[in-house]
Design brief:
The protein is of the alpha+beta class. It is built from 18 helices and 39 strands. The protein is globular, with a radius of gyration of 28 Å. The model has no long low-confidence stretch (mean pLDDT about 90). The structure holds adenosine-5'-diphosphate (ADP) (2 copies) and magnesium ion. The site of one adenosine-5'-diphosphate has 20 residues, from strand 9, strand 13 and strand 14.
């Protein structure tokens, strides 16, 4: 077995690989850029080598530096993770020349599968069912229109070199080809340096189901069942699960066998994934093969009990797979949520900054957290804004979902925005609960983007009861400070008025009466236990919450709840099931006075076009004085290599233009104003 492995990656996947190496008794070498000097993967590895500046192109993508790091440290093999150099032919050649083993498939397989047009041809030769369409390069818009008509609308226009959902667009008619083709091509050019495009049929109400394959160098090629990854935003996976709630045993077997046939056709070794799109009648079509460890591999590990990284390492060491197809079982159900540093309330704008507080949920047999960051660490602008992959396992889908919800409730992240409210909202949608998935799920369930209204209309009372008890405990503690003038000790009232800001109808008040559970207090613990009267309801709360802990875990009105609670000035912020409420606690007198305060109306921004994200103003489609109709294009803003078209929300006349093509925009920066 190898004595030392270098991990040519960063973040959660580097940490993930290091964990398995440790388990196997293999020493590890991390590589890092300037920005990652103090990153978790650097701290976890036995050795670490600095390989350059923060931009990936000046560090993690520099083949020579990584090869040199192997030589300098004596690493015999390299695990590439995903992204970066994991599917790079030149990297493999450089390693081979230096006699260092690449833990992954051979160069010819990566090459064959790296190009969507070529791999589709190969798949169809191996009798794998492929998406109907044109298997050649589209020359220009006119050609695209002709082919799209032949294939039949709707169609998918795709970059042959594409990945990560980039350079891909649906067209439902000729004008959408006109509008989208060149933009996809431009995206492909800027992201992949290759603008070859092709067109295939768009499969309606599609599900994304992929098969994990694994192959050794001794002729064993097996499939490890499927993962369903239909919950996607902009063709990028958000929540994945295994098995798929849609497949039956027959379809699973057919897909597995085709995936194996394709892998064999390219003499595939190591772990790989064959992606399919499945229509409503369970017809399935090959999409692409990813010749690497996939982001969402943990869900497969959770239901099969296998360690894919270990298998990859053993295969690279020329060992035989220690099991046969018939030994591969499905045990229970697993889910993965991709926790990103992004703001779901602002069109998922990436959020960067320091993790001021970071407490991931505890790991156990039902919860797995693959993360590459820790408290005090930074989510930088240079890489993927992924914070963690949060996975759950249960005997059934329902159980796995319940564990996921609880884990999301207790995932405590402060300092950057994160998508946990959105993830919690998805898990709560009826269609998700029923397993009625499609890649349109997010677009259909959130037609206007994500907002508080997408969260289950939680009853505020349980949250108010918890806030009232916690507040009471704080006031009690303050009143008990020693050295107070005799007989002037502060009284702790039991009546309070709690006010929450309901966005719709202003502040709403709830008079409450708090009766803390004194027995529990005297016996230690139970600081936040007692009965709270809100209106006519009495809510019983019992917990062992202690001061300053941000997580309240306990029973509220007979239900077990995990609530995040933060003190904010004169009130509290409570988060639960994706919702967040800000509560102000007044004494009865304070509440009377607060009612007299004037209310500040929010400013009217409807006359302005503001940039929804930081980015580059690519072009302006209108002039001052021009009349525009609702739906007309106003401007194009490029951010994260994606071009976003800003359209008029209603008819109007452009009064003034503030932006200039080529200018960089801050979020909420004014682009133009209407009369
Ligand atoms: P998965 O199916 O494992 O989620 P993705 O296609 O989303 O795979 O890609 C995983 C990672 O690799 C992402 O960080 C993505 O941005 C990156 N990636 C994938 N393909 C490419 C490519 N051709 N060029 C650059 N990055 C890529
Ligand atoms: P990438 O390399 O970016 O991952 P894929 O070809 O795997 O590109 O496609 C990504 C996603 O786009 C799929 O998971 C699916 O949701 C959607 N998609 C791709 N092709 C089609 C198609 N022909 N019809 C419907 N959806 C598609
Ligand atoms: Mg894909």
């Amino acid at each position: 077995m190898f004595k030392k492995i270098l991990i040519a990656n960063r973040g959660e996947i580097a940490c993930r690989v290091i964990k398995t190496c440790r388990k196997m008794g293999i020493k590890t070498v991390a590589v890092y850029s300037d920005a990652d000097k103090e990153a978790m993967h650097v701290q976890m590895a036995d050795e670490a080598v600095h390989i350059g500046e923060s931009q990936a192109a000046k560090s993690y993508l520099l083949i020579d530096r990584i090869v040199k790091a192997c030589k300098d440290t004596g690493a015999e093999a390299v695990h590439p993770g995903y992204g970066f150099l994991s599917e790079n032919r030149a990297f493999q050649e450089a390693l081979a020349k230096a006699k260092i083993i690449f833990i992954g498939p051979d160069a010819h397989a990566i090459q064959a599968m790296g190009d969507k047009i070529e791999s589709k041809k190969l798949a169809s030769k191996a009798k794998v069912s492929t998406v109907p369409g044109f298997m050649g390069v589209i020359k220009d818009v006119a050609h695209a229109k002709k082919i799209a008509k032949e294939v039949g609308y709707p169609v998918m226009m795709k970059a042959s070199a594409g990945g990560g959902g980039k350079g891909m667009r649906i067209a439902r008619n000729e004008s959408e080809v006109q509008e989208g083709f060149e933009r996809s091509q431009a995206e492909a050019k800027s992201s992949f340096g290759d603008d070859r495009m092709f067109i295939e049929k768009y499969i309606e109400q599609p599900r994304h189901v992929e098969i994990q394959v694994i192959a050794d160098r001794h002729g064993n090629t097996l499939y490890l069942n499927e993962r369903e990854c239909s919950i996607q935003r902009r063709h990028q996976k958000v929540i994945e699960e295994a098995p798929s709630p849609f497949l039956d045993a027959k379809t699973r077997k057919a897909m597995g066998e085709q995936a194996v046939a394709l892998a064999k056709a390219v003499k595939y070794v190591s772990a790989g994934t064959v992606e399919f799109i499945v229509d409503t009648k369970r017809n399935f079509y090959f999409l692409e093969m990813n010749t690497r460890l996939q982001v969402e591999h943990p869900v497969t590990e959770l239901i099969t009990g296998l360690d894919l990284v270990e298998l990859m390492i053993r295969i690279a060491n020329n060992e035989k797979l220690p099991f046969k197809q018939k030994d591969v079982k499905i045990n229970g159900w697993a889910l993965e949520s991709r926790v990103y540093a992004e703001d779901p309330y602002r069109n998922f704008l990436p959020s960067t900054g320091r993790l001021v507080r970071y407490i991931p949920p505890a790991e156990n047999k039902n919860v797995r957290v693959d993360t590459g960051v820790q408290e005090g660490g930074e989510i930088s602008v240079f890489y993927d804004p992924m914070i963690a992959k949060l996975c759950s396992w249960g005997k059934t889908r329902k159980e796995a979902t319940a564990h996921m919800r609880k884990a999301l409730d207790s995932y405590y992240i402060r300092g950057v925005s994160h998508n946990i409210p959105f993830l919690a909202s998805v898990l709560g949608k009826k269609k998700f609960v029923d397993g009625q998935l499609s890649t349109n799920f997010i677009a259909e369930e959130y037609p206007n983007g994500f907002s508080d209204r997408d969260l289950p209309a939680a009853e505020p009372e349980p949250l108010l009861a918890v806030a009232a008890l916690v507040h009471h405990a704080y006031v009690r503690r303050a009143a008990a400070i020693s050295g107070q003038i005799p007989r002037h000790g502060r009284k702790v009232p039991s009546d309070w008025v709690m006010a929450i800001d309901t966005h719709a109808d202003g502040e709403k008040e709830f008079p409450v009466t708090v009766t803390p559970d004194h027995d529990a207090i005297e016996n230690g613990g139970g600081i936040a236990s007692g009965a709270i009267k809100i209106g006519k309801k009495i809510i019983k709360v019992s917990s062992d919450w202690i001061f300053t802990t941000p997580l309240f875990v306990g029973e509220v009105a007979g239900e077990f709840m995990t609530i995040q609670i933060e003190r904010r000035g004169v009130g509290y912020r409570l988060s639960h099931a994706g919702s967040q409420i800000d509560v102000v606690v007044y004494t009865v007198r304070e509440a009377e006075l607060a009612r007299l305060m004037p209310h500040k109306p929010p400013p009217d921004l409807s006359k302005f076009l503001l940039s929804p994200m930081p980015g580059l103003l690519v072009s302006l489609a209108v002039k001052e004085g021009q009349e525009v109709k609702a739906g007309e294009t106003l401007a194009i803003v490029e951010a994260m290599k994606m071009q976003n078209v800003l359209k008029a929300e209603r008819d109007g006349v452009v009064k003034k233009i503030y932006g200039e093509a080529g200018a960089s925009l801050a979020v909420d920066e004014m682009i133009l104003e209407f009369c």
